[in-house]
Amino acid sequence: MRILALLALVTLAGCMAETPVALTLDATTYTITTTGVPTAAVAPGSTFQVIVKVAGSVESMTDHAGAHFGKNSTATPSTSVYTSTCTHSGGKLPQTFTATCKAPQTAGVYHLRGHARVTKDNVTTNWWGADETFTVG
Predict the structure, then answer these.
(1) Does residue 9 belong to any structural domain of this protein?
(2) Could you tell me where the DSSP H helices lie in the chain?
(3) Average pLDDT over every residue of 81-104
(4) How many domains does the chain have?
(5) Does residue 6 fall inside a structural domain?
(6) What's the pLDDT band for 16 if we cut at 50, 70, 90?
(7) Is the C-alpha dihedral spanning 49, 53, 54, 60 positive or negative?
(8) Phi, psi of 37 (to 5 degrees)
(9) Which of 1, 110, 123, 137 could form a disulfide with 41 if both were Cys (CB 3.0 to 4.6 A apart)?
(10) Is residue 16 assigned to a domain?
(11) What is the structure's pLDDT at 76?
């Protein structure tokens, strides 16, 4: 009888749910790599695509993964510097996304970064890829 009681306790303990671990998002949760940025000059107003790879080991959902570009570069990227938006997608992270960008009408060198964000519990965390350049001419 004691063996059955002990066996029941061991079985019950193995079926108990674990305490959920809170999802922690910070600047190190994901890394972003942007590839396919044109190396040859693109025509004003033309479209091109870049690949934005969001890598990491934590699964979460995004409503905003794509790319941004602008005339200037900065060590602390934001949408106020990279003011032009390529297409953005939603989905599970980590994942690889394709963003379609429309080149400006003005010739010159532009700076582009892949970008993803996640909003959880009313806190938005952003991740930016390295600064890449393309030329409109």
Answers:
(1) no
(2) 2-15
(3) 98
(4) 1
(5) no
(6) very low
(7) positive
(8) -65, 130
(9) 137
(10) no
(11) 95
CA atoms of 78 and 131, how far apart (whole Å): 12
CATH number of the domain enclosing 91: 2.60.40
Distances 8 to 2, 11, 50 between C-alpha atoms, Å: 10, 5, 57
Please tell me the distance from the alpha carbon of residue 20 to that of residue 18, in angstroms, as a whole number: 6
Residue-range definition of the domain harbouring residue 122: 27-136
What CA–CA distance (Å, rounded) separates 31 from 53? 8
Tokens, residue 42:
């693109």
Query: If pLDDT is split at 50, 70 and 90, which confidence band does 6 have?
Result: very low
Tell me which residue has tokens 């001419």.
137
Residue 24: band (very low, low, confident or very high) from pLDDT cuts 50, 70, 90: confident
Chain position carrying tokens 């938006």: 85
Q: Is 9 exposed, middle or buried (0-12, 13-18, 19+ CB in 10 A)?
A: exposed
110 Cβ partners below 8 Å, 6+ apart?
69, 70, 71, 84, 103, 104, 133, 134, 135, 136
